[in-house]
């Protein structure tokens, strides 16, 4: 009986040894908030450096914490085997607060959607979004003054986005 238990234990150890650790396909090379005053928008920008061949037809799926609250903001980027850099940019944000760090989760998946690697980080806001006006100060390809900001009579409305959570 003792021999059967020993053999079963050795078999389980052999099976456990055969399991592969999740392959590291990429690592973080940068993450930052980008504030564009002229267009009055803020975005997360996260870059990854591939450390192995990326799956052809694979996807990078980024989930960015929404500073306004609610569901995460999702961005996807197609992966190619010879990519030298993966750049993921969030949709436009509202209510970014200085001194607060926000969570970013990224899944790297193959062409069939199987997750091959998961990465997580936090991005620290070093500027408060209240420095940006609620409306873009320019519009159009010629960067014309936005009439929502530059009103008749010389009044300029640079009021930031309102109703942000504390």
UniProtKB/TrEMBL annotation:
Highest taxon listed in the record's lineage: Bacteria
UniProt-listed PROSITE patterns: PROKAR_LIPOPROTEIN
Protein's name in the database: Lipoprotein
